[in-house]
Amino acid sequence: MLMAPVSLLLRRTVLPDDVGVAVNLVVFLQMGAFLMLFVASVLRDLGWGSLVGADRVLRWVRDRSKGAGAAAAGQEEGAVVGVILPGEPSRRAFLQNVFNLSMVGTVGTLTGIGYHEAHKKVGLNRVDVPVRGLPASLEGFTIVQISDTHIGPSLKGDFLEEVVETIGGVDADLIAVTGDLIDGYVPAIGHEVQALSRLKAPHGVYFVTGNHEHYWDAQAWIDHVRSLGLTVLNNEHRMVEVGGARLMIAGVTDHRAGATLEGFASDPHKAAAGGEGADLRVLLAHQPRSATEAAKAGFDVQLSGHTHGGQFYPWNFIAGAVHGFSAGLTAFGDLQVFVSRGTGYWGPPMRLGAPAEISVLTLRRA
């Protein structure tokens, strides 16, 4: 576990890029395997402890039912006969070893499957978003969202090229990139995101920062993304006319951006300011926890990422408790919150039970 921060530090400082990438891959792959092995070990111990406890209780009941004399005779013979588990220490040890080997083999298999799932072509996740009072001209309006691509040490420009090509096959009215685009500085990997310049939609392509942009010089990335033709929304909005209806597309900086960059505190109210005439308000916010203030600011839809849907077992069951939202569409009062599982991955190069996605969100009248 300690190797992960050490490898990140080395990649930032002394390791050549190729070496740093290889070290990160190995370190984070074993981290993912370790996390699954830890959980499997806890489950194994709980299961084995339950069997041992049940065996002792049943053996006590059996001996009582036979009478003290029969129990004493059994002890004199040196024979401990288990009810569920074998009584002989050697046989129990063999059974424990079978448990251990099965556990390690299962985790190894899941690690391989997870690695494969993380590196296969990203699929489309089509979701209808019901909105109360949606104007007729916005019925069927389609937003394509990508999030958490994490271009950097593992995922490179060719991965993003494939994502952009897939988006090109979707009839998108608007495209949203909801943060954690990268893991690295602009001079090192700026060329890896060049494919973003080919994203086109009739009503624009928009970008908001995630927490990882703020680890790697957020202002430099904001400037670079703008140079590729995307509209960056830092606590601001744009108004789009769609068949007579006014659609506000707003964006906030990352939920914790104010702690790392002065003047970048996330503020949905500021993002909505001046948009009182909007028929529909859509907020791009990297972290789903922005929903509380987004609802107060009067937004109808929020698009987020950040959670990765937990990315792999068992964390996909824990993500919701940690972030308030895990993945998919959730009604938060009158606000519809959609959380992408992410288009790439971070850390362990694995996806298991939480596949990567390119989200295709279609607005529908509730």
Can you characterise this structure?
The chain folds into two domains: 119 residues, no CATH class; 242 residues, Metallo-dependent phosphatases (Purple Acid Phosphatase, chain A, domain 2, 4-Layer Sandwich). The protein contains ten helices and twelve strands. It has 366 residues and is of the alpha/beta class. The longest helix is centred in the first third of the chain and has 50 residues.
Please tag this protein with its features:
Purple Acid Phosphatase, chain A, domain 2, alpha/beta, 6-stranded mixed sheet, 39% helix, 10 helices, 366 residues, 18% strand, 2 domains
Topology:
Blueprint: H1 3-13, H2 17-66, H3 68-76, H4 89-119, E1 123-131, E2 142-146, H5 157-168, E3 174-177, H6 186-189, E4 205-207, H7 218-227, E5 231-232, E6 236-242, E7 245-251, H8 268-272, E8 280-284, H9 291-296, E9 301-304, H10 319-323, E10 328-332, E11 335-339, E12 357-365
Parallel strand pairs: 1-12, 2-3, 3-4, 4-5, 7-8, 8-9, 9-11
Antiparallel strand pairs: 2-12, 6-7, 10-11
Helix pairs in contact: 1-2, 2-4
Briefly note the structural class of the backbone: alpha/beta
In whole angstroms, the N-to-C terminal distance is 47 Å
Mean pLDDT: 90
Question: Helix coverage percent of residues?
Answer: 25-40%
Write out the strand line-up for the largest beta sheet, numbering strands in chain order.
1-12-2-3-4-5
Report the portion of residues in β strands: 15-25%
Q: What overall geometry do the principal axes of the alpha carbons give?
A: globular
Quick rundown:
The chain is α/β, with parallel strands linked by helices and 366 residues long. It has helices at 3-13, 17-66, 68-76, 89-119, 157-168, 186-189, 218-227, 268-272, 291-296, 319-323, and strands at residues 123-131, 142-146, 174-177, 205-207, 231-232, 236-242, 245-251, 280-284, 301-304, 328-332, 335-339, 357-365.
